[in-house]
């Protein structure tokens, strides 16, 4: 089903949004037979509940969905989407006094609940379609849903169909859709043009490593998005166990998320000079794989001791960040499925981020609450810098000891971002392990909607 609003042709089914505390008054305002029917059906206006109200001829006259109370709503998000999943196919029009600010994330969740990844088997999201409520920016919401769908599709695609070649093709398609320019450096040209760590990580694959560089817009502040595009991560010679390798098709989730965000930015016409950099590689195993103990020299000139070939994402990002910083953009963000430590710290729902910019952090936190895209600030804890300095080289890609893994990875990246650049790094998961309202199991965007909401204030747009 399309992730768009339905057109109101006058036959949309009224859908009443009822809080638990308002249920008694709402029932009192209904016809006696309706009130009796709703009560008999067990409807208590709790979150996720839905009640169908039949007409005398057996058709659907109206419906009601529960909106719980504030305490219950604080335990989750996209509550209307949870109830919408229980409604039969049809077109519905909300009857509610909720304000537009409350409704916008709710109806976005409804659109996102229509998503299904159906490339390889039949699948469908919710079948109930919604008419855009008055007062919400329907076009913006549909655009955000489209960007989210792009991110989900890319992450859900198996590596056999989403390797570096296919990821490049997806970027070319996105660029063509919005009139963006694109340049790609592939294979041995990475060595010639000084991207040694991107080349080292990806050289063992049959699909050549590459750096994808997309640009859009020629007015406004310079915004650079860098996304980790490791299309599959075996762990390299430090081979992952099978259980840890099963979800590694999602290791390009950072690239997928910045592409979804770029889609939103371009479709909405934000007044920025947008640049998207994606190092696209497969961390494969072959006779020419990079090895534990190797020392690589990065684009920036810093040397890196390889203590674990499974800590490869920070290597490809480092060269891309160094390249991006040479232009000194007004704002640079990186997104990556970088560390398991981040998942241990905050779980799969929160998008942890690192920033030395208090204004950026405040804007992100406020935006995240507004658009129901939770983020959590983590510390660039400078005293841990010594943990990424092995002595034999400038930097260590995988410090021993097991402490602060997400923080040390972020500190590693900060070394390449350039001191003159406002830099924020997201260590995302990119996967929803359990189906939830508006978020089916599988690939998912994290942090992109919060960033989009924060950008105008942060960049003075």
TrEMBL record:
<feature type="domain" description="Cytosol aminopeptidase">
    <location>
        <begin position="308"/>
        <end position="315"/>
    </location>
</feature>
<keyword id="KW-0645">Protease</keyword>
<dbReference type="GO" id="GO:0030145">
    <property type="term" value="F:manganese ion binding"/>
</dbReference>
<dbReference type="InterPro" id="IPR043472">
    <property type="entry name" value="Macro_dom-like"/>
</dbReference>
<keyword id="KW-0464">Manganese</keyword>
<protein>
    <submittedName>
        <fullName>Leucyl aminopeptidase family protein</fullName>
    </submittedName>
</protein>
<dbReference type="GO" id="GO:0006508">
    <property type="term" value="P:proteolysis"/>
</dbReference>
<keyword id="KW-0031">Aminopeptidase</keyword>
<dbReference type="Pfam" id="PF00883">
    <property type="entry name" value="Peptidase_M17"/>
</dbReference>
<keyword id="KW-0378">Hydrolase</keyword>
<dbReference type="Pfam" id="PF21337">
    <property type="entry name" value="Peptidase_M17_N_1"/>
</dbReference>
<dbReference type="GO" id="GO:0070006">
    <property type="term" value="F:metalloaminopeptidase activity"/>
</dbReference>
<dbReference type="InterPro" id="IPR048816">
    <property type="entry name" value="Peptidase_M17_N_1"/>
</dbReference>
<comment type="similarity">
    <text>Belongs to the peptidase M17 family.</text>
</comment>
<dbReference type="InterPro" id="IPR000819">
    <property type="entry name" value="Peptidase_M17_C"/>
</dbReference>
<dbReference type="InterPro" id="IPR011356">
    <property type="entry name" value="Leucine_aapep/pepB"/>
</dbReference>
<dbReference type="GO" id="GO:0005737">
    <property type="term" value="C:cytoplasm"/>
</dbReference>
